[in-house]
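Go through this one:
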Amino acid sequence: MTTRTNAVVPGREIALAAARAASAKQAEDVVILDVSGIIAITDYFVICSASSERQIKTVVEEIEKAVRELGERPVRREGEGDGGWWLLDYVDAVVHVFGEEEREYYDLERLWSDAPRVAWEEPGRVSSG
């Protein structure tokens, strides 16, 4: 169990933990966007999708668990119920977990296409060099 200190976890670390957690639960097309130079409300967006409402909930739970291990909890959590788009707001990182249709419809990657993508490595994936 991790106890929270007064230290603030950097948004990048939260985003990386969220992306890895989502990937570990088979979320699809996990992307981290660095939006710090574009908007003032957050530094990173983590965007992923899942094929069913049940899987979306599983992905969200795993992300919350992973980020909680860093000592952080979302300040806002939206999307319960219908489950097509869940949002976890960690202030410096905002996580979006979509159903496949909702992700295609809202297309946040196109909307924030000026934001650089952050490279990250999926768990269990070996880089070839």
